[in-house]
TrEMBL record, chain A:
This is Binding--dependent transport system inner membrane component family protein. Belongs to the binding-protein-dependent transport system permease family. OppBC subfamily. It is found in: Cell membrane. The keyword Phosphoprotein does not apply.
UniProtKB/TrEMBL annotation, chain B:
One of its GO terms (cellular component) is plasma membrane. InterPro entries: BPD_transp_1_N (IPR045621), MetI-like (IPR000515), MetI-like_sf (IPR035906). This is Binding--dependent transport system inner membrane component family protein. Residues 94-295 form the ABC transmembrane type-1 domain. It comes from the Bacteria. It is a multi-pass membrane protein.
């Protein structure tokens, strides 16, 4: 056996920062929202839909600047002119249409419309410029949908929080009310309300909001029930925080993803309701244009002047598809479990 | 189970009572009377009319009479439409609506289930994207836009189907198609999510390990298990079809209850509006009840948990 000499030289100094390196955080830590936005930006479909929505909203809200004519100005001589862009030759914009017998005519010539007059999307049966009407109509539909959704949130959020937070008898009672409202199909509720209220913008908004807050309240309640059991809530109760403050500081921030997602789904539903109501004739009163009234006017002349229905329908469909796709993207981004 | 159903039916009756009361008072608040649309009536004539319809009695009496009649299945008499009893008005118009609604529901849900299943089996490739796109379009495009488009192309341009009116079964095809879009889209979406979940579960792995072919696994295990939750959207789908029918029946001039409802709104025909509201709510609640019963019958796990809950 030989002696093993252990000297200082056989040792090596350990790197003191090794453990530090392992635990070093390489990426900046993200808050929940930053993380969600990051995921959302990766979703191409959602990003494209978002830009389409922004574009439509900007164009619609600039209607007073962009619209070439007054949307409600009638001109009986220029009624039912098909789309035409002056001094160009693009198919579909030549100002020609087929009459009832199927013969192609040019109403621009028969009605002596000056050659440089441009009606990009034609005119309706009262000679109103369809392009201007679509711009204003989209704006009105968007306003109705957004305001209705805000009102819906203002009712649904407190209702859901109170119901979930209080629990017990209050909860049972509040849930019974919700059950009764939701046992009547939504649109029937809207129609009945609209019949009672004076026809007009605010009634439509109220009616739509009143029928859609139920979904919001239900979701919020379910979430509140879960959040109520969390330790940090218990901690704030123990610290003597008032219920109001707990709701503001703890519940609402934690409910925010549910709120955002549900809001984004409520807007297209509200657009649909408005279009539906105007289509059956109890929506926006004439002469104002909304997407629904444009559709219903267009539908009456659809067989021979299909463009009067086509363009509003296209705008409505694009708007609805973009909203739904964007909302889908938001849901995936905020709730990664769902995918 | 029986106890549960009885309890649900009891709640349904209470709900119907509340719906009936609320609609009754709402209709009383409505501006305009049913006689505003008629030609000028002398005060004496108006008085006779009001007496005939019981409109001169105090509100609470009218309310009690209305509720009493409801219990006898008497929904009142229509103010317009030849003074028919509301119930018979609904009954004569029920058949077209039921036919169209049922066809749309069956067609929509079967196609939706297939579409969703195909999408889930091809998860994350182009078939899936296509199916997702179809269902988004189906959810986004309102049934009245779809209806008008179908009418224009299939009926007006290509003469494949009757344009409108109710002449035999051919007339029901286009409206059913228009109404089927939304159930199709919703079932497809739901089915896809469910099936993706099921495909990731252990028993599917086991079935593969046993040497079952892909199709055996899909038919025997995947489809059956993913179909169970799809039943839960039967209720919302019914609501969609009900509301869709209001306007689709108008587009195709079909003498159904949806068209009647819109007509009654236009003519301030309170009894018919009230009757149809109650009818729609009843139908909707029955569908929700059937959904729940079906669900617990098909999935034994649900029954178990409800027993434990009791």
């Amino acid at each position: 056996m030989t002696d093993v000499k252990i000297t200082a030289a056989s040792f090596q100094k350990a790197q003191s920062d090794q453990s530090k390196n392992q635990e070093k955080i390489s990426a900046p830590s993200l808050t929940f929202f930053q993380d969600a936005v990051r995921r959302l930006r990766k979703n191409k479909v959602a990003v494209v839909s978002f830009f389409i929505l922004v574009l439509i909203a900007v164009v619609a809200f600039c209607a007073p600047i962009l619209a070439p004519r007054d949307p409600n100005a009638q001109n009986a001589n220029y009624a039912n002119l098909p789309p035409r862009i002056a001094n160009t030759d693009i198919p579909g914009f030549r100002g020609k249409s087929k009459n009832a017998a199927g013969v192609e005519t040019n109403p621009y010539i028969t009605n002596n419309v000056p050659h440089d007059q441009t009606y990009i999307l034609g005119t309706d049966y009262l000679g109103r410029d369809l392009f201007s009407r679509i711009l204003y109509g989209t704006r009105l539909s968007l306003i109705i949908a957004v305001v209705a959704t805000v009102v819906d949130l203002l009712i649904g959020l407190p209702y859901g929080i109170i119901s979930g937070w209080k629990g017990g008898r209050v909860d049972t009672f509040m849930q019974r009310i919700i059950e009764i409202i939701s046992s009547v199909p939504n649109l029937i509720v809207v129609i009945l309300l609209l019949l009672v209220l004076k026809p007009g913008l605010s009634s439509i908004i109220l009616a739509i909001a009143f029928s859609s807050w139920v979904t919001m309240a239900r979701l919020i309640r379910a979430q509140t029930l879960q959040l109520k059991e969390q330790e940090y809530i218990l901690a704030s109760i123990t610290l003597g925080e008032s219920t109001w403050k707990i709701a503001w500081k703890h519940l609402i921030p934690n409910l925010s993803s549910t709120i955002i997602i549900q809001t984004m789904f409520s807007i297209p539903t509200a657009i649909f309701f408005e279009a539906f109501l105007s289509f059956i004739g109890i929506g926006i009163p004439a002469p104002n244009a909304s997407l629904g009234t444009l559709l219903s006017d267009g539908q009456k002349a659809f067989r021979f002047l299909p463009y009067q229905m086509w363009y509003p329908a296209a705008v409505l469909c694009i708007l609805m598809i973009a909203f739904n796709l964007f909302a889908d993207g938001l849901r995936d981004a905020f709730d990664p479990k769902s995918d | 189970m029986t106890k549960y159903i009885l309890k649900r039916i009891f709640y349904m009756i209470i709900t119907l009572f509340i719906v009936a009361s609320v609609t009754f008072f709402m209709m009383k608040l409505m501006p305009g009377t049913p006689f505003t649309n008629q030609e000028k009536l002398s005060p004496a004539q108006l008085k006779i009319m009001n007496e005939q319809y019981g409109l001169n009695k105090p509100l609470w009496q009218q309310y009690l009479i209305y509720l009493g009649n409801l219990l006898h299945g008497d929904f009142g008499t229509s103010f317009q439409f030849n003074n028919q009893p509301v119930l018979s008005l609904i009954m004569t118009r029920l058949q077209p609506s039921l036919l169209i609604g049922a066809q749309a529901m069956i067609l929509g849900s079967i196609l939706g289930i297939l579409l969703g299943a195909v999408a889930a089996m091809n998860k994350n490739n182009w078939i899936d994207s296509l199916a997702t796109f179809v269902s988004i379009v189906g959810i986004s495009v309102p049934s009245f836009v779809a209806g008008v488009m179908l009418q224009f192309y299939l009926a007006f341009k290509w003469h494949l189907f009757p344009i409108a009116l109710w002449n035999g079964w051919e007339s029901s095809i286009l409206p059913s198609l228009a109404l089927a879009f939304s159930p199709l889209a919703q079932t497809a979406r739901f089915m896809r999510t469910e099936m993706v979940d099921v495909l990731n579960s252990d028993y599917i792995e086991l079935s593969k390990a046993k040497g079952n072919t892909r199709w055996q696994t899909v038919v025997k295990h995947t489809l059956r298990n993913s179909l169970i939750p799809v039943i839960t959207i039967l209720g919302p789908l019914t609501a969609n079809i009900l509301t869709g029918s209001l306007v689709v029946e108008n587009i195709f001039s079909i003498p159904g209850i949806g068209e009647q409802f819109v007509k009654s709104i236009m003519t301030n025909d309170y009894p018919t509006i009230m009757g149809l509201t109650i009818f729609y709510s009843l139908l909707f609640m029955i569908m929700l009840l059937i959904t729940d019963i079906l669900y617990s019958l098909i999935d034994p796990r649900i029954r178990l948990t409800s027993k434990e809950g009791n």
